[in-house]
Amino acid sequence: MPGLKRRAGGGQGLLLRRWRAQVGDYPVCVCWHPDGSLLHVGDAGGVLSTFAAGDGAIVQRVAAHTGGILDLAPSPDGRWLASAGQDGCVRLWEAAATVPLATLSAQAAWVEHVAWAPDGSRLAAAAGRYLHLWRADGAPSACGEPEGSTISALAWADSTEIVTAGYGRVAFRDAADGGVRRSLDWQGSLISLALSPNRAIIACGSQDRTVHFWRRATGEDSMMSGYPAKPAALAFDDSSSLLATAGADYVTVWSFAGGGPEGTRPGLLEGHGARITALAFASGRRRLASAAKDGSLLVWDLSRSGTGRLTGAVLVGAAIEAITWNPQGSAIARIDAEGRVEVWDCADTE
Amino acid sequence: MSTTKVPVTILTGFLGAGKTTLLNRILSEQHGKRIAVIENEYGEIGIDQGLVIDADEEIFEMSNGCICCTVRGDLIRILGNLFKRRDKFDYVLVETTGLADPGPVAQTFFMDDDVHEQFALDGIVTLVDAKHVEQQLDHTRESAEQIAFADVLILNKTDLVEPARLDELERRVRGMNALAHIHRASHGEVDLDRVVGLSAFDLDQALSRKPSFLEPEYPFEWSGVYALEAGHYRLMLDDGPDPAMSLVAVTLPSADETALRAGAERCVRLYAEEPVRTQPGEPVEPATHVELELTEPGTKVFPLTIDTPGLVGLYTEHFAEEFNLRLTDAEGRLLQPVAEHAWVAQHEHDDTVTSVGIEVAGDVDANRLNRWLSTLLAERGIDIFRMKGFISIAGEAERFVFQGVHMLFDGRPDRAWGDLPRGNQLVFIGRNLDRAALEAGFRACLA
How many contacts, defined by CB atoms under 8 Å, are there between A and B? Predict the structure, then answer.
């Protein structure tokens, strides 16, 4: 392949495999400890595995939930890890603990999403149509009115406000009482959510193969269509100017620079052989990782307009379930359908 | 990339039709399969075994307002998660509530990329409460839709209903859905392989085995089988809706379904012959197309003589109850049939949900067919629940098979015609279908 040199470990370009490990069931979610020293993986068998980031040594393996784990979230200070599962519970774990510090019941079948407020003061979880909020010590804080249908995604806008997406709308809720402050309605099923880091734009992928976004200041909305598949993954870069979207076997990148993206052409990043399953920007830069059903993992350096240059590629493996950059933006973890957990170092461009 | 898809059966039917009993039976049977159940009716009756997941029926309509894009959001999420544990499940059963429209459930398996890649809709099984369904049909849309969508219809609770009413019911649901396999059951006792492993949506499976899938339209509506000794009998009829009625009496080797059908084939040929007009008092000739003349008011009696003891099937143009048809022995004792069968006939139903079967010889022009189908589905797709068929396209060596749910159409060439006679068979199941217009539309596509 021109411009790319094959390196040890099967990677190409800038990617070098640091280690590979295996979990016992289908891995569903992955996150780093905020200091980048540990990698946590939750699987469909309910096991929470913790690996040393440096060499992949197993640090802890614990049966965390009956049924599968659905989401993981480390607290911003790194003290706790929250896990959410099909048993209707959120559990709080201290680093390397084998028993949970607390078990928070969401009183519903599945808890699909869990997220900490940026200041760590509260924990939010989505279970069915309900948003549950707890204080950092695990005391229930609020559970507002339910949504009209299952919450498909959630994100904290700031430490006082949380955003949810679902069928029919995006809702902004008060973190203190769970009450709805604002609702952005849309007749359609919103399946993914990305909030720009400057909190000015809310973008959602929709079941009907479109991406819908709102400018928060004005409430104006726009729709981007033409996706061959549902855009289940979305990612904003740190500057809030680039939105990468899945929904095809290429990545579509919209630039919000200038007056865009309305009336502009998106950057199209081609190189995967199957549908994109995961997208992630490295912190502090316009470096995007994209992963697909064919096991490919590509790393791109993007321009301000959203065009991209391929800087690294791993083209082998099983369908990628999730990817995540380490906090330093120097390594990327991926989990795949065959239970593999891998960390790839991503060297800097000269 | 391609892996075996996990088969999914949709189990539908009104509350009380016996879904939970059937589910429990399926789960407890020793079939060696690991089955996951996605159910909607919380706390109705507990399911004994297996993984059971509660779901809200979340209907996702799309911003474009297209009904065929409507899917079940809860199923997408649950199946997505189940797939990740797929090594633990061989089969998935989705139970829907009595008031559910099966359309969005079925469409989920074609419209959602992930679900479509990982799961294959195996079939839609509708349980019908034989005792209450007629009331339900009269009062709800959903009941008719559930019958219309079904690949398998189980008339359950047959023990609570008179056989004659069951026949009437079977005729009625057959008129609504000409494609479904109909089974009768009490207490949900149905062979498992009639419910799962149907491959009803698999074009390779569904149509390729059979050269014909349309039920032949018989010239008779009813048959009754009587076990008779040698001797003299009297066939009696009261006043009925018509001045005459055709009948064929044939001997049968047994009273089971196979023998009845074989007898039916013989009778079809006999019915094609000129009838022997028979006045009251004149004997019924065996194995002959007779036309009983019924203009005289009051009870009409036709003697029937049996030489060798055995089973005799009476294949009658109309239903026995329409003329209060009965058979007595020489002493006037009323005889009960040992078996009865209602045949699919051109029977008038007032149901708005019906099946239209079209069988036409000849080849069709591919372009005209394409235009006709596109227009038809665009205009009438909402009312067409299911369709299936095969088509002989001019210039193509292979049979073209297709099936559809609402506006979703799936079709492709299947196997070479070879020695088989080329021809076309199509069945539409839907609401307010215009048979004449459909047939004319299709005929206009002939090359």
Answer: 66
Backbone angles phi, psi at A316, to 5 degrees: -120, 155
Q: Is the pLDDT of residue B433 over 50?
A: yes
Of the CA atoms within 13 Å of residue A226, those in its CB half-sphere come to 9
State the amino acid at position A149 in one-letter form. S
Q: Which phi and psi (to 5°) does residue B60 adopt?
A: -105, 110
List CB contacts (< 8 A) between B74 and chain A. 150
pLDDT of residue B350: 64
- The pLDDT value given to residue A124: 95
Find the helix or strand (DSSP H, E) in which B436 lies. Answer: helix B435-443
Amino acid identity, position A128: G
- Chain B contact for A275, CB < 8 A? yes
CB proximity under 8 Å: A 234-253 to B: none
Query: Which residues of chain A are within 8 Å of residue B61 when distances are taken between CB atoms?
Result: 187-188
Q: Determine contact, residues B178/B164, Cβ cutoff 8 Å.
A: no
**Interval A146-194: pLDDT, tens:** 999 899 999 999 999 999 999 999 999 999 999 999 999 988 899 999 9
- Section B324-349 average pLDDT: 81
Would an 8 Å CB–CB cutoff place A40 in contact with chain B? no
| CA distance between the termini of chain A | 20
Ranges of each domain in chain B: 6-209, 222-342, 353-443
Look up residue B132 and give its amino acid.
H
* Burial tier of A137 (Cβ tally within 10 Å: 0-12, 13-18, 19+): exposed
- Beta bridge pairs of residue B127: B13, B154
Predicted pLDDT of residue B446: 92
pLDDT above 60 for A117: yes
Q: pLDDT confidence of B440, banded at 50, 70, 90?
A: very high
Q: How far is it, in rounded angstroms, from Cα A114 to Cα A188?
A: 23
For the domain B6-209, what is the CATH code? Answer: 3.40.50.300
Distance from CA of B113 to the nearest CA of A (A): 7
Least confident interval from A37-46, A191-200, A258-267: A258-267
CA distances from A12 to A1, A214, A312, B108, B341 (A): 9, 38, 6, 39, 71
Q: How many residues does chain A have?
A: 350
SS3 B122: strand
Q: How far is it, in rounded angstroms, from Cα B173 to Cα B170?
A: 5
Structure tokens that stand for B37 in this block: 């159940």
Tell me the C-alpha distance between B107 and B144, whole Å: 18
Q: What angle do CA B125, B129, B131 make, to 5 degrees?
A: 155
Q: DSSP code of B194?
A: G
Secondary structure (DSSP) of A210-224 = EEEEEETTT--EEEE
Contact partners, residue B215, CB within 8 Å, separation at least 6: B174, B178, B344, B357
Give the CB-side neighbour count of residue B40, counting CA atoms within 13 A: 23
Instruction: Give yes or no for a contact between A91 and A65, defined as CB atoms under 8 angstroms apart.
Output: yes
B193: DSSP letter: G
pLDDT at residue B48 greater than cutoff 60: no
Going by the DSSP 8-state scheme, the letter that residue B45 receives in this structure is S
Count of CB atoms within 10 A of residue B179's CB? 24
Contact at 8 Å (CB) between B386 and B405? Answer: yes
In a 3-state reduction of DSSP, which class is residue B433?
coil
Query: Does the pTM exceed 0.80?
Result: no
CATH code: domain B353-443 is: 3.30.1220.10
As a whole number of angstroms, the distance between CA B441 and CA B364 comes to 12
Residue A209, by phi and psi: left (phi above 0), alpha (psi -120 to 50) or beta?
left
- Angle (CA) B278 B282 B288, round 5°: 55
Is A86 within 8 Å of B64 when comparing Cβ atoms? no
Of B62, B80, B81, B78, nearest to B70 (Cα)? B62
CA angle A66, A71, A72 (to 5 degrees): 105
CA angle B88, B94, B100 (to 5 degrees): 165
